[in-house]
Protein: Glucokinase
Amino acid sequence: MNRIRGAIGIDLGGTGIKSALVSADGSVRHFRTVPTEASRGRDALLAKLSGIIGEHRRTAEQEGLQLLGIGIGTAGSVDRSGTISYATEHLPGWTGTPLKQLLEREAGLPVTVMNDVHAIALGEQWNGAAQGISDFACVAIGTGIGGCIVKDGTIEGGDDGYAGGFGHHIVAIGGLPCSCGNRGCWENYASVSGLKNLMLEHEAPDPWVQDPKQLFAAARGGDVAALNLVGLYAEVIAIGLANLAHILNSRRFLLAGAITAQGDFLLDRIGEQLRRNVMPVYWGDGILLHAAALGEHAGVTGAASTVTGMRN
Structure:
């Protein structure tokens, strides 16, 4: 009897590590999340990854799953050799880590390593909201903003594999300082952190600032001040997307991250503002916004999908 094929998928973020066994049909099993504990340093993080991989290998063996390899999506920039070329202070000591080489040596299995937003895009394309779509731009909006470009069904990485740094295109000359060292980056205004900045600027009630979900709840209830703030936030997001539409000539955007929890209430407002800011020649028959559908499974699904043999 043929054994079911699968891979270990890992989504490594600054605060949590998601992992699962992903079958070749895209189904996710034994999904779990553990704290990253990045402050303990690189070696402790590598040891934690090793432990996670070991647990999933034992489970796969018990269930008769044929493991084809390990796919990892990680915060930061990843070069073509699977080395972390840049990571922020959220993952101290992570920059320069030859992750693919280290894990292949230890696990004895093929390992693929990519940026976490790349993994989300591939997961959604394989088994989610972008299924059947070969060309789109993915924008993940959370604490910061990440992105990637999918062309003809594959990630377009640019010269070094780093294409998609959408959060760091500048929308305000001399604007708010960014962790990257520049000022006025889009993510300072359109991320969840940017929404908090917007609320502080407009002297919003403290409960809204501390928990943006309360802002959206108030807006859904008809609060005029909340509706105005949500409208401003939608405009800030739309301006960045309009810039991308003009640069990439893309008419399909996959939106992922925390903002998708607001559903059409926010997406419809973004769409209205987007239409106002995109030149007609770029608008064509319309720009489509797709909300990611896989939720917290997207990253592990996409990471696992890049292991050889998973999608054919």
Notes: The domain at 5-124+296-308 is CATH 3.30.420.40 (Nucleotidyltransferase; domain 5). The chain has eleven helices and twelve strands. The chain has a mean pLDDT of 94. The two ends are 19 Å apart (CA to CA).
